[in-house]
Design goal:
By secondary structure, this protein is mainly α. The protein has 5 helices and no strands. Helices cover about 50% and strands about 0% of the residues. The chain is elongated and about 50 Å long.
């Protein structure tokens, strides 16, 4: 069985990477930006970076859908901020 080198492991395990998953936004980044964000920066440093509008809207929509499903709220209740 062929195994890949430890450089493909997480930094905490002696490897190179600080990410533990891939997302569509990661796959849309240019290679140099991805390398900087997920090899050079730590998770804490990435969290301090400014987000973009798509990320902010995605978080808002995701929270609204979760409120609709989990808390069984109506669309009007979600829009008025009830929880």
């Amino acid at each position: 069985m062929k195994t890949i080198g430890k450089e493909w492991a997480k930094k905490s395990e002696g490897g190179t990477f600080t990410a533990d998953h891939l997302s569509p936004s990661q796959l849309n980044k240019s290679l140099d930006m991805w390398f900087n964000d997920y090899v050079v920066l730590t998770a804490e440093q990435r969290k301090s970076l400014f987000g973009n509008l798509n990320m902010d809207i995605g978080a808002i929509v995701g929270q609204a859908v979760q409120d609709l499903i989990v808390h069984k709220l109506t669309f009007e209740e979600v829009m008025k901020g009830k929880k």
